[in-house]
Amino acid sequence: MSRLRSDFWVSAYLRRCSVEGVDAALRKRGAAEAGAIFIKVDQLDGTASLYGPAPQLFLDESGERLFAPILQGVMPLDVEERMARELRFDPDLWLVEVDDRAGRHFLDLAADD
């Protein structure tokens, strides 16, 4: 089964956040078909977390996008610095920023076996 295009996935994700009453914004538009997607969650208390694509070993045949935490409970500037490095490596990535005091992200996370 093929995976949903990045642009469709991001659009659906933004709608999900809106339905849940959580502010989310597209900060960087990437490659429509297969750009890597990163989610920054700002807890609005001086901390933030960053989620990105799970390593390939966690992927299965379902075609679902799985995410893994990259940074958790760090200063928002740390997330920005990490994303600057990611952008130098992959300028076609997507970045969505979520503002939620509870730190909700609504992502499917890869299991830590």
UniProtKB/TrEMBL annotation:
Pfam families (UniProt xref): DUF1491 (PF07372)
Q: At the top level of its lineage, which domain of life is listed?
A: Bacteria
Protein name (record): DUF1491 family protein
The source organism is: Microvirga terrae
